[in-house]
Amino acid sequence: MNSKPELIYEGKAKKIFAHEDSDKVVIEFKDDATAFNSLKKAKFEGKGELNCVISSKIFQHLIEYNIPTHYLGLKNKNSIIAKKISIIPLEVVLRNIAYGSLCKQTSIKPGTVLEKPLIDFYLKNDSLNDPLLTKDRIYLLNLISYEDLTLISNLTLKINELLKNFFLNIKLKLVDFKLEFGYTSEGQIVLGDEISPDNCRLWDLNQKNDTIVSLDKDRFRNDLGGLIEAYSEINKRINNFIRFN
Ligand code: TMP
Ligand code: ASP
Questions:
Q1: For residue range 25-72, what is the model confidence (pLDDT) as tens digits?
Q2: Which end of the chain is least crowded, N or C, by CB within 10 Å?
Q3: How remote is the CA of residue 198 from the centroid of ligand 1, in Å?
Q4: Ligand 2 within 6 A of CB of 129
Protein backbone atom coordinates (compact mmCIF):
# COMPACT_ATOMS: atom_id res chain seq x y z
CA MET A 1 0.00 0.00 0.00
CA ASN A 2 1.35 3.43 -0.90
CA SER A 3 -1.25 5.92 0.31
CA LYS A 4 -0.54 9.63 0.70
CA PRO A 5 0.85 10.48 4.14
CA GLU A 6 -1.60 12.08 6.52
CA LEU A 7 -1.23 15.85 6.94
CA ILE A 8 -1.05 16.43 10.70
CA TYR A 9 -0.56 20.20 10.73
CA GLU A 10 -0.03 23.03 8.29
CA GLY A 11 1.75 26.17 9.47
CA LYS A 12 2.74 29.33 7.61
CA ALA A 13 6.03 27.96 6.27
CA LYS A 14 5.86 24.19 6.87
CA LYS A 15 3.58 21.16 6.62
CA ILE A 16 3.87 18.24 9.04
CA PHE A 17 2.98 14.75 7.82
CA ALA A 18 2.63 11.48 9.70
CA HIS A 19 5.49 8.97 9.39
CA GLU A 20 5.08 5.16 9.40
CA ASP A 21 6.89 5.23 12.75
CA SER A 22 4.44 7.02 15.06
CA ASP A 23 7.33 8.60 17.02
CA LYS A 24 8.50 10.44 13.88
CA VAL A 25 7.09 13.03 11.47
CA VAL A 26 7.97 14.34 8.03
CA ILE A 27 8.33 18.12 7.86
CA GLU A 28 7.96 19.76 4.46
CA PHE A 29 9.31 23.28 3.94
CA LYS A 30 6.99 25.47 1.86
CA ASP A 31 7.84 28.25 -0.58
CA ASP A 32 5.41 30.58 1.24
CA ALA A 33 6.69 33.58 3.16
CA THR A 34 4.71 35.64 5.62
CA ALA A 35 5.64 38.65 7.71
CA PHE A 36 4.01 40.75 10.42
CA ASN A 37 1.74 37.85 11.38
CA SER A 38 0.63 37.19 7.81
CA LEU A 39 -0.25 40.81 6.99
CA LYS A 40 2.25 40.33 4.19
CA LYS A 41 2.32 37.14 2.11
CA ALA A 42 4.29 35.93 -0.89
CA LYS A 43 5.65 32.79 -2.52
CA PHE A 44 9.31 32.40 -3.48
CA GLU A 45 10.00 29.45 -5.72
CA GLY A 46 12.85 27.43 -4.22
CA LYS A 47 12.69 28.94 -0.72
CA GLY A 48 11.41 25.69 0.81
CA GLU A 49 14.30 23.67 -0.60
CA LEU A 50 16.88 26.27 0.42
CA ASN A 51 15.59 26.52 4.00
CA CYS A 52 15.37 22.74 4.22
CA VAL A 53 19.01 22.17 3.25
CA ILE A 54 20.33 25.18 5.20
CA SER A 55 18.43 24.18 8.35
CA SER A 56 19.51 20.53 7.99
CA LYS A 57 23.19 21.46 7.88
CA ILE A 58 22.82 23.78 10.87
CA PHE A 59 20.99 21.13 12.91
CA GLN A 60 23.70 18.58 12.02
CA HIS A 61 26.29 21.07 13.29
CA LEU A 62 24.40 21.60 16.56
CA ILE A 63 23.97 17.83 17.03
CA GLU A 64 27.77 17.42 16.68
CA TYR A 65 28.02 19.75 19.69
CA ASN A 66 25.51 17.68 21.69
CA ILE A 67 22.51 20.00 21.37
CA PRO A 68 19.39 17.81 21.70
CA THR A 69 17.18 18.37 18.63
CA HIS A 70 14.22 16.84 16.79
CA TYR A 71 16.26 16.46 13.59
CA LEU A 72 16.77 12.91 12.29
CA GLY A 73 17.72 13.41 8.63
CA LEU A 74 16.91 14.78 5.22
CA LYS A 75 14.06 12.95 3.44
CA ASN A 76 14.24 14.74 0.12
CA LYS A 77 15.05 18.21 -1.23
CA ASN A 78 12.36 19.98 0.74
CA SER A 79 11.55 17.69 3.66
CA ILE A 80 13.17 16.25 6.73
CA ILE A 81 12.38 13.42 9.10
CA ALA A 82 12.14 14.56 12.71
CA LYS A 83 11.17 13.22 16.11
CA LYS A 84 7.51 13.86 16.85
CA ILE A 85 7.43 16.44 19.63
CA SER A 86 4.81 18.42 21.43
CA ILE A 87 5.79 22.02 20.86
CA ILE A 88 6.01 24.37 23.85
CA PRO A 89 3.96 27.41 22.76
CA LEU A 90 6.84 29.84 23.22
CA GLU A 91 8.85 31.65 20.56
CA VAL A 92 12.31 32.09 22.08
CA VAL A 93 14.13 35.04 20.51
CA LEU A 94 17.79 35.70 21.27
CA ARG A 95 19.24 39.08 20.31
CA ASN A 96 22.95 39.95 20.02
CA ILE A 97 22.35 43.24 18.25
CA ALA A 98 19.32 45.51 18.62
CA TYR A 99 17.11 45.49 15.54
CA GLY A 100 13.50 44.84 14.49
CA SER A 101 10.81 44.86 17.16
CA LEU A 102 13.25 45.64 20.01
CA CYS A 103 14.01 49.00 18.39
CA LYS A 104 10.36 49.69 17.56
CA GLN A 105 9.36 49.10 21.19
CA THR A 106 12.25 50.86 22.95
CA SER A 107 14.60 53.78 22.39
CA ILE A 108 17.57 51.49 21.59
CA LYS A 109 19.13 52.47 18.27
CA PRO A 110 19.18 49.83 15.49
CA GLY A 111 22.59 48.19 15.26
CA THR A 112 23.50 48.68 18.95
CA VAL A 113 25.62 45.74 20.12
CA LEU A 114 24.02 44.42 23.31
CA GLU A 115 26.32 44.02 26.30
CA LYS A 116 25.04 40.47 26.75
CA PRO A 117 22.56 38.41 24.72
CA LEU A 118 18.93 39.29 25.41
CA ILE A 119 16.35 36.49 25.45
CA ASP A 120 12.74 37.50 24.75
CA PHE A 121 9.84 35.05 25.06
CA TYR A 122 6.71 35.43 22.93
CA LEU A 123 3.45 33.49 23.14
CA LYS A 124 3.10 31.30 20.05
CA ASN A 125 -0.46 32.30 19.23
CA ASP A 126 -1.29 33.86 15.87
CA SER A 127 -4.78 35.00 16.89
CA LEU A 128 -3.20 37.01 19.74
CA ASN A 129 -0.40 38.25 17.45
CA ASP A 130 2.38 36.39 19.35
CA PRO A 131 2.56 38.85 22.30
CA LEU A 132 5.79 39.49 24.24
CA LEU A 133 5.63 37.71 27.60
CA THR A 134 7.16 38.30 31.00
CA LYS A 135 8.49 35.36 33.04
CA ASP A 136 5.65 35.86 35.54
CA ARG A 137 3.10 35.66 32.73
CA ILE A 138 4.75 32.45 31.49
CA TYR A 139 4.22 30.86 34.92
CA LEU A 140 0.76 32.43 35.28
CA LEU A 141 -0.28 30.75 32.02
CA ASN A 142 1.34 27.49 33.15
CA LEU A 143 3.27 27.30 29.89
CA ILE A 144 6.38 25.67 31.37
CA SER A 145 8.05 25.02 34.73
CA TYR A 146 10.82 27.19 36.19
CA GLU A 147 13.31 24.31 35.71
CA ASP A 148 12.38 23.75 32.06
CA LEU A 149 12.43 27.49 31.26
CA THR A 150 15.92 27.67 32.77
CA LEU A 151 16.98 24.66 30.71
CA ILE A 152 15.61 26.26 27.51
CA SER A 153 17.31 29.59 28.27
CA ASN A 154 20.67 27.86 28.85
CA LEU A 155 20.30 25.81 25.67
CA THR A 156 19.46 28.99 23.73
CA LEU A 157 22.63 30.72 25.04
CA LYS A 158 24.73 27.67 24.08
CA ILE A 159 23.12 27.51 20.62
CA ASN A 160 23.87 31.23 20.20
CA GLU A 161 27.59 30.67 20.83
CA LEU A 162 27.67 27.77 18.33
CA LEU A 163 25.67 29.66 15.69
CA LYS A 164 27.64 32.91 16.10
CA ASN A 165 30.89 31.02 15.35
CA PHE A 166 29.33 28.98 12.58
CA PHE A 167 28.09 32.09 10.78
CA LEU A 168 31.29 34.05 11.46
CA ASN A 169 33.16 31.33 9.53
CA ILE A 170 31.04 32.15 6.49
CA LYS A 171 31.32 35.92 6.98
CA LEU A 172 27.86 36.48 8.43
CA LYS A 173 26.95 38.37 11.58
CA LEU A 174 24.23 36.69 13.66
CA VAL A 175 22.05 39.60 14.78
CA ASP A 176 19.14 37.65 16.30
CA PHE A 177 17.12 34.46 15.85
CA LYS A 178 14.00 32.64 16.97
CA LEU A 179 13.89 29.09 18.34
CA GLU A 180 11.12 26.70 19.33
CA PHE A 181 11.43 23.77 21.71
CA GLY A 182 9.27 20.74 22.41
CA TYR A 183 8.99 17.55 24.46
CA THR A 184 9.68 14.12 22.95
CA SER A 185 7.49 11.15 23.89
CA GLU A 186 10.10 10.41 26.59
CA GLY A 187 9.71 13.89 28.05
CA GLN A 188 13.07 15.22 26.88
CA ILE A 189 13.24 18.88 25.82
CA VAL A 190 14.68 19.22 22.32
CA LEU A 191 15.15 22.01 19.80
CA GLY A 192 12.45 21.88 17.13
CA ASP A 193 11.29 23.92 14.14
CA GLU A 194 14.02 25.20 11.77
CA ILE A 195 17.09 27.44 11.77
CA SER A 196 17.22 29.29 8.49
CA PRO A 197 17.29 32.82 7.09
CA ASP A 198 13.51 32.84 7.72
CA ASN A 199 14.07 32.98 11.46
CA CYS A 200 17.57 34.47 11.84
CA ARG A 201 18.84 37.94 11.03
CA LEU A 202 22.14 37.55 9.20
CA TRP A 203 24.23 40.50 8.01
CA ASP A 204 26.91 40.16 5.36
CA LEU A 205 30.40 40.80 6.74
CA ASN A 206 31.87 41.05 3.22
CA GLN A 207 30.86 44.72 3.04
CA LYS A 208 32.97 47.83 3.12
CA ASN A 209 32.23 50.34 5.90
CA ASP A 210 29.37 49.37 8.17
CA THR A 211 26.72 49.05 5.48
CA ILE A 212 24.01 46.65 6.59
CA VAL A 213 23.26 44.05 3.93
CA SER A 214 20.62 41.59 5.16
CA LEU A 215 20.82 38.05 3.79
CA ASP A 216 17.60 36.92 5.50
CA LYS A 217 13.81 37.37 5.54
CA ASP A 218 14.22 41.12 6.16
CA ARG A 219 14.67 41.23 2.37
CA PHE A 220 10.96 40.38 2.18
CA ARG A 221 9.82 42.15 5.38
CA ASN A 222 11.43 45.42 4.25
CA ASP A 223 10.82 45.07 0.48
CA LEU A 224 14.52 44.87 -0.33
CA GLY A 225 14.13 42.21 -3.08
CA GLY A 226 16.60 39.42 -3.85
CA LEU A 227 15.42 36.95 -1.22
CA ILE A 228 16.24 33.79 -3.17
CA GLU A 229 19.63 35.22 -4.17
CA ALA A 230 20.40 35.93 -0.48
CA TYR A 231 19.34 32.46 0.72
CA SER A 232 21.30 30.84 -2.16
CA GLU A 233 24.38 32.82 -1.16
CA ILE A 234 24.09 31.51 2.42
CA ASN A 235 23.69 27.95 1.17
CA LYS A 236 26.71 28.36 -1.11
CA ARG A 237 28.87 29.71 1.72
CA ILE A 238 27.82 26.85 4.04
CA ASN A 239 28.64 24.28 1.34
CA ASN A 240 32.05 25.82 0.68
CA PHE A 241 32.80 25.91 4.39
CA ILE A 242 31.77 22.28 4.90
CA ARG A 243 33.83 21.19 1.86
CA PHE A 244 37.04 22.71 3.22
CA ASN A 245 36.62 21.76 6.90
P1 TMP B 1 11.68 40.72 15.79
O2 TMP B 1 12.75 41.75 15.81
O3 TMP B 1 10.64 40.99 14.73
O4 TMP B 1 11.08 40.48 17.13
O5 TMP B 1 12.38 39.35 15.34
C6 TMP B 1 13.45 38.81 16.07
C7 TMP B 1 13.95 37.55 15.37
O8 TMP B 1 12.98 36.53 15.42
C9 TMP B 1 14.28 37.73 13.89
O10 TMP B 1 15.45 36.98 13.60
C11 TMP B 1 13.11 37.15 13.16
C12 TMP B 1 12.61 36.10 14.12
N13 TMP B 1 11.16 35.94 14.08
C14 TMP B 1 10.60 34.75 13.66
O15 TMP B 1 11.31 33.82 13.28
N16 TMP B 1 9.24 34.63 13.68
C17 TMP B 1 8.42 35.62 14.07
O18 TMP B 1 7.21 35.45 14.06
C19 TMP B 1 9.02 36.87 14.51
C20 TMP B 1 8.16 38.00 14.97
C21 TMP B 1 10.38 36.97 14.50
N1 ASP C 1 6.71 34.58 10.82
C2 ASP C 1 5.94 35.72 11.19
C3 ASP C 1 4.69 35.86 10.36
O4 ASP C 1 4.18 35.68 9.62
C5 ASP C 1 6.61 37.04 11.21
C6 ASP C 1 8.01 37.25 10.80
O7 ASP C 1 8.78 36.32 10.59
O8 ASP C 1 8.37 38.42 10.71
O9 ASP C 1 3.91 36.30 10.21
A1: 999 999 999 999 999 999 999 999 999 999 999 999 999 999 999 999
A2: N
A3: 9
A4: no
Question: Is the model's pTM score more than 0.70?
Answer: yes
* CA–CA separation, 233 and 51 (whole Å): 12
For the domain with range 7-83, which CATH number is right: 3.30.40.10, 3.30.200.20, 1.10.10.10, 3.10.20.580? Answer: 3.30.200.20
Under the banding of pLDDT at 50, 70 and 90, the label for residue 76 is: very high
- List the CATH code of the domain at 86-243: 3.30.470.20
What single-letter amino acid sits at 89?
P
| % of the chain with per-residue pLDDT over 70 | 99
Report how far apart, in Å, the C-alpha atoms of 229 and of each of 45, 134, 198, 214 are: 11, 37, 14, 11
CA-nearest residue, atom 16 of ligand 1: 199
Q: Where are the domains of the chain?
A: 7-83, 86-243
130 lines ligand 2 (CB under 6 A): no
Query: Is the CB of residue 112 below 6 angstroms from any atom belonging to ligand 2?
Result: no
14 lines ligand 1 (CB under 6 A): no
Ligand 2 geometric centre to CA of 20 (Å):
31
Burial of 193 (0-12, 13-18, 19+ CB in 10 A): buried
DSSP letter assigned to residue 73: E
For residue 183, which phi and psi values (nearest 5 degrees)? -105, 135
